[in-house]
Design goal:
By secondary structure, the protein is of the alpha+beta class. It is built from 11 helices and 11 strands. Helix 2 packs across helix 3, helix 4 runs antiparallel to helix 5 and helix 10 crosses helix 11. It is elongated, with a radius of gyration of 25 Å.
Length: 319
Amino acid sequence: MTSDMTARMLRLLSLLQTRREWSGADLAERLSVTVRTVRRDMDRLRELGYPVDSTRGHAGGYRLTSGSDLPPLLLDDDEAVAIAVALRTAAGGLTGIEETAVRALAKLEQVLPRRLRGQVTALQTSLAGIAWETRGPRADPGLLAAFAVACRDHEIIAFDYTTRHGSTARRRVEPCHVVSSGNLWYLLAHDTDKDDWRLFRLDRITEANPTGHRVPPRPVPGDSPAAFVAGRLSAAPTRYRAIATVQASAEHVRARTQGLATRLQPVDENTCRLDASDDYLPRIAQTLAHLDADYTLDADPEVLTHLRDTAHRTLRAAP
């Protein structure tokens, strides 16, 4: 290949990796070549092992598909650094990929240009995560990736979902966003059967299968997926009730309980009410410990017992 052809092939490959499907005319315009040249370049990519699929007709186009081997990827500087950060920070919330993430990071660092290698090396040696809870799996990385692709492509997906009560049913949804909250991952989707927005915990999903049916993007109520998910989580039923009336302003408490902002209600300028209810007793204790203010508590007996036991252990440990 000539140098001009090599540069064009790399640019073509980069374009194919940024969109699910491209028409030949769009690619020709981006590359300043003819549609015929695009077809020849696609054949060259196939000879190099890239699984390029093409369809004929007015709505036809080109796309990279899954093959038996992973071909080389083209990343710009920001993407390479972002992947390095993600490998170190996101792996802690997934199941059993910590060692794999470290190996992938080492491979990435090995081929990075010198101008970026120092940044990635600093990230690899400096970043660390603290796991406050070890309550088992959060989400399978393959499942997370599958939902991320379905959200990007607006493709309906079907799966089995187990509710908090233990019952399982088949669901069919239009996926919108994958949202993390604490150590849990959630799928925000529009349920096609119930014709309503639903929130699904990824660790309760099994047998997820894309349907191949794509739909137009559906706007999230309020135009903020994170805010919508936070509102649904705050309104969701919990196993243990704990309502604290705090002798501090709502602004003061909000700064110390960011994840529970939607459960915080001002009473007056110097008092507010916080709903710290949860399915997990230690998390209720952690929330209350962060208040940094006096409060009275209206809570279930199990909550009060846990708080007393925790306080007694702390006092016995004090010199």
